[in-house]
Amino acid sequence: MTAEKEILSIKSLTKLYGGVVAVNNVSFDVKEGEILSLIGPNGAGKTTIFNCITGLSRPTNGEILFNDNGKKAEISGKKKTLKPDAITSIGIARTFQNIRLFNNLTILNNVKIGRHPRSKKNFAGAILRTRSQKNEEKDILKSAVRYIVFVGLEGSIMEIASNLAYGDQRRLEIARALATEPKLFLLDEPAAGMNPKETGELMELIRRIRDMGITVLVIEHDMKVVMEISDRIVVLEYGKKIADGPPEEVKNDPAVVKAYLGTD
């Protein structure tokens, strides 16, 4: 599935950590409705780009623009970077390479927390237990259950997160992120540590997320996953972009082959 309108534009992005250049003048667009994979060897700058997109890191140079209801707005740049909660509120969600859950809470409560950016409740409403407050709590519960069912965890909805198998913890993290109702979903190495069965189920889940109308940007080292789910691939090496195109084109690009396999 492809689209013409860009939901995210990264322009001349550079990020320095002291004297280390983590990202070096990288530009690419993410098209609305596609699955775009961002790949490259370890240390290529992939997660740094995710951190700049989601407000965890401010670029040294360049800018990141998000298409917010038809209007492109700068969310991250040298002079201005929105806070992570503000970026979530406008429609960007992410998962992390290392799973981050509220381990002592149930599946249900983890996902309900994901609804927080969409909540309209206030302190007075919570204290007085107003009708609108009660109705919103019902809506939060209904929404949380819907996403739990969507990722296939309905059979253990009251299970404590720390008791889940690794693959199910990944699913829970995805459900919590979906509960924020993103337009753009960033997945950081979602297949890491999964067995082949879990990986196959994950690929199907990512396609279903895209089919919901959510654009997906994914970092992944499993090339089988990348080649099977991606509409387009952007390749980084030492912080620079070396390729951008459809899977068949990218996998045969000499620069990409050299980056992954080296030369004689």
How would you describe this structure to a colleague?
This protein is an alpha/beta fold and 264 residues long. A hairpin with a 2-residue loop joins β1 and β2 (20-31). Helices cover 38% and strands 26% of the residues. The strands form 2 sheets. The protein has a 6-stranded mixed β-sheet, sandwiched between helices. The two termini are 38 Å apart. The chain has helices spanning 46-53, 84-90, 107-114, 123-128, 131-151, 166-178, 196-211, 223-229, 247-251, 254-261, and strands at residues 6-17, 20-31, 35-39, 61-68, 71-77, 92-94, 184-188, 215-219, 232-237, 240-245. The protein folds into 2 domains: 1-91 and 182-264, P-loop containing nucleotide triphosphate hydrolases (Rossmann fold), CATH 3.40.50; 100-180, no CATH class.
**Number of contiguous helices:** 10
Annotated CATH homologous superfamily of the largest domain: P-loop containing nucleotide triphosphate hydrolases
> Architecture of the largest domain, according to CATH?
3-Layer(aba) Sandwich
> How much of the residues is beta strand, in percent?
25-35%
**Unreliable runs:** none
* Shape, per Cα inertia axes: globular
Strands, count: 10
Give the % helix: 25-40%
Oligomer: single chain
CATH fold label of the largest domain: Rossmann fold
Global structural class? alpha/beta
Strand order of the largest sheet: 6-7-8-3-9-10
CATH domain class name of the largest domain: Alpha Beta
The tally of domains stands at: 2
